[in-house]
Batch of 2 targets.
Target 1
Amino acid sequence: MAQARWMWYPGDFEIYHSFLLHSRRDELDWIHPAFWRQDDCWHSVKFVREYELDKPKQIEVRFNGVGHINLGTGYESYSKSGSYMLPAGKHQIEIWVCRQGGLPAAYVSGGGVDSGSGWMVSCHDNNFVPVGYSDKWYFSPKSDPEVFPFAYELIEPVSTEAVNGGILYDFGKETFSRLTVRTFDAPVHICYGESREEALDPKNCIIRDDVPVASEKEMKARAFRYLWLSDTAEVKAEYEYLPLEYKGSFRCSDEKMNRIWDTCAYTFHLNSREFFLDGIKRDRWVWSGDAYQSYLVNDYIFADEDINRRTIYALQGKEPVTRHINTIQDYSFYWIMSIGERYVRHGDLEWVRSMWPSMKSRMAFCLGRVDEEGLVVERPGDW
């Protein structure tokens, strides 16, 4: 029996979260968004599904955005989330959703028309395609597809030390955590460090925060092992991560090799989030060349095909193709190769066919960038 889940235009969940991710990087108190074209999701879409009932049935409808629902019996439409009665007979249900600045999505439960498989969607270009949805997340009508479902775990420092007029916290290993800091009699300056030396260098520390006096502030998650606070404060750190099952393992008689493998696997997990990142501290961006290697490593550690496909969708972007992926021609080719390798390893021909139009347009763009002798040459905008 089908289970209802939130649905959206295919690829838009990934493009929306990619846009958020690539605009988050900051260092030395300035914002550093990615320097290649950043696409956005469609903000107005139409979901449709045909149905045939021998008797009326009740459904529940939710919108992520504003819109209306037409049950297929005429021009009467309903513009609020709620319960509706599907009439008997053969009809087509239509749901129009618009979401300014966010991801338009819909949720339908009951009546044999649960949202997900079987629904089609259009961005109002007269072309309908199968909807996108997750097999793992967003089954509850109260869940929000604009919020990525990370897990959180409270972590404690392994040591604290009074130094340089402040307090140095050592969490024992690299983490990616959000801080909540409560100050008392003085404002607090925070320096994040992957090394002790970095955390103790307020002038040159890449990532830093400030918390006003007698206040409480929750910071966005950042990468660090060490924290230096300029004054006494109450600190809570929550490790933010994507729950993944370790399906691959390694052990041998050399304990040093075992520790190396454990460190590598943990580091790879740190960078396995919405998508595969190039590094957990900087850039925290999605690079096609880095991702291509991550797909292969993932096959042996997590064997999680969802994150592979999310990353490929995020790199794909919207039509028309006007620049190389990450502005690098090799990275456009890596993207095409990655889809071929996904097919070789998993044999999902339906998914490859869904990507085929984008693969063709990407390849046509690459062929259009060669010279009269058919050789690759640098063009304006290439890196």
Target 2
Amino acid sequence: MSKTFRRFLITSTLVAGLAALTMTACGDDDGGSAASNLAGFMPADAFVYVEGSLKPDEEVADDVEQLSQKLTGSSLSAWISDALEKSSDSSVSLKDDMEPWLGQDAALFVSGDLANQAADAAGAANVSVGVSATVGISDSSNEDVGIVVESTDTDASNEFVDKAAEDGATDGEYEGFSFKISDDDRSVLGVVDEKVVFATNQAVFESMIDASKGDSLEGTSALSELSDKVPDGSLLNVFIANDPIIGAASEGAGGVDLNSLYSALGGDLSETANMISLVPEADGISVVGTTNADPALVSGDASGLIESFPADSVFALGSGDIGANLSTVIDAINEEGIEGLLAPGELKKSIDESTGQGIDVTGIIESLDDLGIFVGGGSVDGLGGALVLSSSDPEPLKNTLGLFQTLLSFSQDVRVQPLKGDATGFRVRTPELPGQPVVVAIKGERLVIAVGLPAAAQALNPPADSLADSAPYKAAEQSLSGENVDMFVNPSAIGDLIAASN
């Protein structure tokens, strides 16, 4: 084993533990509740916070194992062990060095200069935080990442820190707590108040200790309000603060004042956040999203459209009141403008000019009702999908469709063929889109943009064997206790597709 104290070594073990966390977390027996005691170690300006339980009840653990078997063909525990063995030649192991002290809860946070991180990600196409092929954290210099894991045995925790650090680390101390600083990448590992704490640098580690003694994420109104809404049996809880995102959007190149734009829409984003929870069941996963922000746009019920999609759909998504919401957004952007791109009043002017050139943008928008998307097929090679828009008045869409068909026919290397039968539209083939053609068509009150003729036919002519009649969809619908289905994912079918492709 290398004698240097590498962040890769430590994070390969801790992130693998968090992989177990994200696949096995659950709520308490008394209702949904966040692991808020760990939020006390998170700086108040953290913009992403992930939390959960490392020791779920037996029913949740069984559901996770069943899902893991269906998606990967192996158990989760076997996957984690294999990932650890491949991640490095370290003698530190999950079973021997972590399990003796692992407590009930664990959490991870991300903070820092979000505007610079977004710029780096755009320039380098690099993910800020994630589990890579080697189960590590990327080396972006803009990252501020901290991990806290509860410990049941302080002595065993200290032994883990010493073994992970070996002799390639420098000792440090802050506010009475000792820690190890990597001689290689300056990451930090230590034990603080019976918790194992990892940070990507010393400043982050010290900020976590400061947070535990004063101003922390736990004390923010946003986390407090959303923690009470975490559903029972949640697999994973992800907290995302809005203020840092708004600030990054405003400060970045061509910045957009999201607060002003959202206010123009009738909402308020200041001091708000979102919580996304994944709830595992034996045959599926429910995704529950909550926010304490005032809603600016309210989606109507698009479940009727979703239910009309093919029964073999592995993914479906829908939203209602598309026209009304688009009109509201256009009015807000027209009022506020977008700095460096659109002056106030310019958007409506451009729309009026388009109408004069034969594209009735206003008429099209006002006619739109629901939007839906589905992906399905019996094999990976046969996968197809479509975007479906329902319209109360398809005439403006038909007129615009003819104009687009004419314009595309003049493009080089583009082959446009009109559709036969009772649908109005065309199919397009280009060298950039090999394989199945893209079909654009209108029939009745539906506009369809589909990949592949079979998907287009299913979208234009809803099949008798629809998603609403399938057992997985019925199970998902029942799990929502009367709430409308906005998104559907069939993990079992996805697992079958993956297995068949190997």
